[in-house]
């Protein structure tokens, strides 16, 4: 099993990558081809589906950054972790989520299941 903390760091970096081509390359490198991404707002599969979700979030939350909150808890090729959407590093998050990431033996993401703990006010 690979280091899932590193996998989570790479996953969050995809959400923060502004360049669409670099983001697509990072998704292709980190995710298996048919990996589902499921959260309360989306249920997609594959590189293009996940890429579209990230692009939509980046458009909706321009200038904000996803950061890891706390530590990654991992076992048996799965990791759970909390993230925050912040205006600047260390700031109070405007959104907080909890994701479960499942990886294959090589450390590639084969599924992500997300939950929203705090959403921005309308």
Textual characterization of the structure:
This protein has helices spanning 4-16, 20-30, 46-60; strands spanning 36-39, 42-45, 65-75, 78-86, 95-103, 109-118. By secondary structure, the protein is α+β, with helices and mostly antiparallel strands. The protein has a single domain (2-116), classed as Nuclear Transport Factor 2, Chain: A, CATH 3.10.450.50. The chain has a 6-stranded mixed β-sheet with strand order 2-1-6-5-4-3, covered by helices on one side. A hairpin with a 2-residue loop joins strand 1 (36-39) and strand 2. The longest helix is centred in the middle third of the chain and has 15 residues, at 46-60. The model has no long low-confidence stretch (mean pLDDT 95).
Key terms for this structure?
single chain, 122 residues, alpha+beta, Nuclear Transport Factor 2, Chain: A, six-stranded mixed sheet, 3 helices, 6 strands
Unreliable stretches (pLDDT < 50, length at least 5) are: none
The overall pLDDT average reads 95
Rg over CA atoms: 13 Å
Number of domains: 1
* Largest sheet report: 6 strands, mixed
Number of helices: 3
The geometry reads as globular
Strand content: 35-45%
CATH architecture assignment: Roll
The CATH topology label is Nuclear Transport Factor 2, Chain: A
**Strand order within the widest beta sheet:** 2-1-6-5-4-3
């Amino acid at each position: 099993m690979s280091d899932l903390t590193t996998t989570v760091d790479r996953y969050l970096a995809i959400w923060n990558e502004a360049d669409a081509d670099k983001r697509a390359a990072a998704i292709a490198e980190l995710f298996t081809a048919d990996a589902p991404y499921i959260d309360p707002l989306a249920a997609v599969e594959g590189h293009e589906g996940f890429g579209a979700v990230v692009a939509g979030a980046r458009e909706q939350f321009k200038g904000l950054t996803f950061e890891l909150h706390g530590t990654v808890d991992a076992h048996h090729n799965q990791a759970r972790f909390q993230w925050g959407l912040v205006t600047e590093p260390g700031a109070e998050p405007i959104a907080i989520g909890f994701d479960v990431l499942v990886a294959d033996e090589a450390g590639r993401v084969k599924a992500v299941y997300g939950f929203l703990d705090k959403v921005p006010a309308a």
